[in-house]
Design brief:
The protein has three helices and five strands, in the order βααββββα. By secondary structure, the chain is an alpha+beta fold. Strand 4 and strand 5 form a beta hairpin.
Length: about 140
């Protein structure tokens, strides 16, 4: 990443809660309220949105840590808006302050850690890892 990213750089993302985003969408015995993993998704996208303009060609940022509180329930049809703001950079990792709001109240907040990766090298490591795993299990057909 050649461009310095100013502290305070912001990004955003939004989605409308559907059944697939709810606890009931993950397990039928649970209520149809927005799930914590689904709340984290637009937070991650907001982080990506904030940092991607500063990445060089072939680079992206990926999440490396998540520390969030899910503070209030939201139901199907509610519009969730997530924001992310760059809080700090330690020379290698970015810390983003994130929040999510459902139009009535804040439903979640916390921090997300991000790191820059080179997509081609990252994907090659993932392919190698998958091949190694298959070979160890005896699934690899030669």
């Amino acid at each position: 990443m050649s461009l310095p990213i100013p502290i305070g750089t912001r990004g955003g993302a939004q989605e409308t809660v559907e059944l697939k985003h709810t606890l009931a969408g993950h397990h039928p015995e649970l209520p149809p309220v927005y799930s914590t993993p689904d709340m984290i998704c637009p937070m991650e996208i907001a982080c990506f949105d904030a940092l991607q303009p500063y990445c060089e060609e072939g680079e992206i940022t990926v999440g490396i840590s998540i520390h969030v509180e899910h503070r209030a329930a939201s139901g199907i049809g509610m519009r969730i808006r997530a924001t992310a703001e760059l809080e700090s950079f330690d020379g290698r990792f970015y810390t983003m302050r994130v929040s999510a709001h459902d139009g009535i109240q804040e439903i979640g907040r916390g921090t997300v850690g991000r790191a820059v990766v080179h997509v081609s090298r990252f994907m090659e490591r993932m392919r190698s890892k998958a091949t190694d795993t298959q070979a160890k299990r005896g699934d690899l057909r030669v």
